[in-house]
Amino acid sequence: MSYKVSVIVPVYKVRGRILKTLESLKAQTFKEFEVLFIDDGSPDDSSEFADNYLKDSGVNYRIIKKENGGVSSARNLGIDEANGEFIQFLDSDDYIDKDMIKDLYDKITEEKCDVVYSAYVFEENDGKRITDNIEGLSEGKFSGKEAALGLIYGISYTHIMANLFKRSLLVDNNIKFDVNRKFAEDISFMIKSYAYAENIYCMKKIYAHYVKWGESVMNNVSLNYLDVYYSNIETLQYIRANFNDQELEKAMIQNRIPTAIVNIFIAFATKQNLHKEMYKFIKKKDVRKNLSRYKMVRIEKDRIKYSILSKLILHSPKIVEKYYSRR
């Protein structure tokens, strides 16, 4: 059976956090969609709970069980199994507004786009707002390249779940999530999708709710956070292999990659047990070369900060370490 939209929901150990996700799917005003719950070898009864909650709700859903392989492998399986013309990704501890699927579907078909994306809010699990990205967005239709540049430069960005993708865009171009990376794989996926897209529409409205559960990523940082760098390096290599576009390459080289290095240094500086690995990382020739390439795309407070930090990390890293290790 075919649907207009497939919502892909990886499920792993979320029994105590999935209820609001299910409620938001049940409340959707758009009805011609399916939900694919990809149970990624979850050790608890998360998918059984979802099944019991939705079985008499009228929501079309399937539960697909697989061996544990991580969120990227679950999303990739969802793409393969989806019957919808369009695809949305939703994590099983986040949620969406009741009109999100309807409004994004209406816009993507009305504007004849490959992707439509909206704003999102990052919030506490009690609903208290932490931050959102709406001010950085501009309503309207853009070329895929324009949207990709906005994402790379951090001028116009969003969360993976605030996108609606045409499935054929993903399938025809074999766009997948990198199963070898635990960080920045979703941004890499979006950059590739946007770069392949002919047209993309940005909706300046908040529909998606990214929920903070427990400690922040920064508090739980580990060596896996090095993926932020390597994922971006691999994205640059992908751009070089698949697109003859100097602007996209320049944006990765002068902004996204050096910014990733700064973010890794800051994250590691907050953890005494990672200082040795932090210095090992920034002493690498390729890392130093890439860090030295940082250039501001425009004058803004945060970009000035990254410009200063990139130079300090290269020449006086102890100053940066001392400052962030106290935070």
UniProtKB/TrEMBL annotation:
InterPro entries given in the database record: Glyco_trans_2-like (IPR001173), Nucleotide-diphossugar_trans (IPR029044)
Glycosyltransferase 2-like domain ranges (all copies): 6-168
Signal peptide range in chain numbering: none
Protein name, as recorded: Glycosyltransferase
Source species of the chain: Clostridium weizhouense
